[in-house]
């Protein structure tokens, strides 16, 4: 499978994505726990069907020490007992923020309040940016059919 577009070879997307990736580094360096960042990135990518991002975030999380059990259960996090309450709140917010077109009200007050119980404003801001960034990346990758499987840990750092 070949990608429809090479983002970094094309001047407009190449230039824009350099800025997006710089913003992504700010989130990565934030106080939002790294494990939460990878779990959220993985879940958003699963929902959006972004194979290249699922590949990337599974490998990055595993390299950072995340267990195979937790990675395999992300798609069924509601029924899994391997996540903290804070992680569950972040995954719930990620799903609500990703599925805004599916839910008439967007992110409900209840979902927001559960996340706000576990994360301060800086962490919530980082979480919101991460969810938004992942939705952007997923959509770009899905629309251009970016192939999965060849990602190497640290490739974009």
TrEMBL record:
<feature type="domain" description="Carboxymuconolactone decarboxylase-like">
    <location>
        <begin position="24"/>
        <end position="96"/>
    </location>
</feature>
<dbReference type="Pfam" id="PF02627">
    <property type="entry name" value="CMD"/>
</dbReference>
<dbReference type="GO" id="GO:0051920">
    <property type="term" value="F:peroxiredoxin activity"/>
</dbReference>
<dbReference type="InterPro" id="IPR029032">
    <property type="entry name" value="AhpD-like"/>
</dbReference>
<protein>
    <submittedName>
        <fullName>Carboxymuconolactone decarboxylase family protein</fullName>
    </submittedName>
</protein>
<dbReference type="InterPro" id="IPR003779">
    <property type="entry name" value="CMD-like"/>
</dbReference>
<dbReference type="InterPro" id="IPR004675">
    <property type="entry name" value="AhpD_core"/>
</dbReference>
